[in-house]
């Protein structure tokens, strides 16, 4: 079987970045094809788990800030077009103590404050007493500094992906799910994408397959590390205490195992308080190696290290637990660049565990690259050349 002829662009992988890119391409009238080995939104990759934190001031680097600010605008635009609730700006808190935290981690709060000041983002800097008064759910040591951002909150990843794919279809995009891409072959006149069901030709290809991208891109992404992460939902004694408006999304650099916890208020219509951390002890050789079973021992460890003694009024009753992938670059930044062997292939990985909040705007920028040869946002900090420069 041979696929559609004369496509302008093919998007491989329809998660956070891919669904956004496909929607933005189709919106521009591009003849676009999206391919995914599963049926997104799904729980096999990195773009699930009910909620994802979004922040406007980004402690990972100020180059991210214009991207997330534009992403927030796009989420609101899509909400208006679809009637779906995608973004809840319930407020976000980043906090760290003065002791027990790695200096690089502790600087995250100050870097976040600096980003907010540079871009004029509304925020407050709180001491431990002020944090305790406003959010008594946190058990503090008394030496914490907090950054509170009213415009932070969370997005609903599955809803966001579904909404963008629906809009892409409405604008004429073709979507093929349950189809495995086996090769991406640059040619003089374009790019051929080979799958287990056929092949497709296009002028441009965006590779946004997350954990599967290194296997398809080859050498340019061979530095990527693939890690299994665990998400947990625990039952509070009083769920009302953790509703949006009474409890923020948070990133707590506490210095325990994993260095920090992050978590969410309980969205309307749900019961569990989502709490997780980031661990990089075990590297996977391929996506197929992931163990999707979360054991009781893992749940007990997460509760003991990331909840007990940190969050008041949260029981050890785990209502749900899931796994996801982090596809991690060595420096923890994004990788968004042309494939070194072809200007027609754009690599959009790794997101290094903090990509979803930016995805709507990156999709728009990628559509600009595919149609106009340039992106509206500055994506140069995420290029492959930074590794050569650092060598």
Q: Number of DSSP strands?
A: 20
Radius of gyration, in angstroms, nearest whole number: 21 Å
CATH topology of the largest domain: FAD/NAD(P)-binding domain
Structural class: alpha+beta
Give an account of the 3D structure.
With 391 residues, the protein is an alpha+beta fold. The chain has 2 domains: 7-48 and 157-222 and 331-390, FAD/NAD(P)-binding domain (3-Layer(bba) Sandwich), CATH 3.50.50.60; 92-150 and 225-328, D-Amino Acid Oxidase, Chain A, domain 2 (2-Layer Sandwich), CATH 3.30.9.10. The protein is 27% helix and 29% strand. It has 9 helices and 20 strands. The protein has helices at residues 16-27, 65-82, 103-119, 128-134, 157-170, 213-217, 296-306, 359-372, 385-390, and strands spanning 7-12, 32-36, 52-54, 87-88, 92-96, 124-127, 145-149, 153-155, 174-177, 181-187, 190-195, 198-207, 225-236, 249-253, 261-263, 273-276, 283-284, 314-328, 336-339, 342-348. The strands form 3 sheets. Strands 5, 6, 7, 13, 14, 15, 16, 17 and 18 form a 9-stranded mixed beta sheet that branches. Strands 1, 2, 9, 10, 11, 12, 19 and 20 form an 8-stranded mixed beta sheet that branches. A 3-stranded antiparallel beta sheet has the order 3-8-4. Strand 10 and strand 11 (190-195) form a beta hairpin. Helix 1 (16-27) runs parallel beside helix 5 and helix 2 (65-82) crosses helix 8. The longest helix has 18 residues, at 65-82. The chain is globular. The relative contact order is 0.20.
